[in-house]
Write a structure and sequence with these properties.
alpha+beta, single chain, three-stranded antiparallel beta sheet, Endonuclease, Chain A, 12 strands, four-stranded mixed beta sheet, 311 residues
Amino acid sequence: MPPVLPPLPPGPLSLDAARDLGLADHQWRMPQLLRTTRSVRSTAPLTELPERAAAFALALPPDVAFSHVTAARLWGLPLPAHLEEQGDLDVIRDTGRGRIERRGCISHRGLEHRVVASVQGLRVTALADTWVDLGEVVRRGLGRDDLVVVGDVVATRLSDPQASGGPPRALADALAARVRPRHASLLGDALTLVRRGVRSPAETRARLMFHDAGFPEPEVNAPLHAAGGGWLAEGDLVWRAQRVVGEYQGAVHAGIRRRSEDSYRNGLLGDEGWTVLELFAQDLVPGARRVATLRRFARALELDPARLRIH
């Protein structure tokens, strides 16, 4: 009969905690305990990132924080799929302390220049600092548009209702506080395009498509009112002077009930002299459909396609 482990708490377990529970060293090596990292075991596989990070935190020095891609994922920030699947954990420590040399960790230094927050009980670099750190991830396949997507989310979460236009202050301050951050120029370019109030990554990418084509900048998730002052709707991308609205139709709009509501709302806007044009994910992909979409919007906005960068 195979040896049986005593009852153990769920989740990751450190060697010291196991000994405190009365577990003998030979029991620690039993196959029923799964190895997460050196000196940490669990009774079940730890597949979710917060679980894995919590397990590693048991084995890391207490002055370490999670950073870069790992911090962004713990904060729930939108990243390209290949980074969402990154297995190794980004960890950071003060410059004067030793580097973390542990399998499964990507070690960074410079925590003294960052603010530390708590996410699900874990030490994590703060939102604005995490965004700046993503500049170091460009070599892992992160581009300008990806930085703007994340920046829009961070700026919206940290937004001051009384703030004026321009680059969000928290991100600008975090970037300015760094000494020679990697890809500072790319971060600076992305920062000029970050806007508060964006509701989804797709809305950001649609806005950037129009920006790159040379269109005037639309308002984001702006309120629309009837001639008498009554509230009509909120538009995803609004060119108010031309009374044109771009509405991104994601998966949430696929159901017949939602489509019915959208149609009714668009009818009300049309009665008030607004032109509503729909956008879908396929419209944002470079190619013939994207060109046709940009030309359609150019006509509605009374813009000369020859003066735009439509391709």
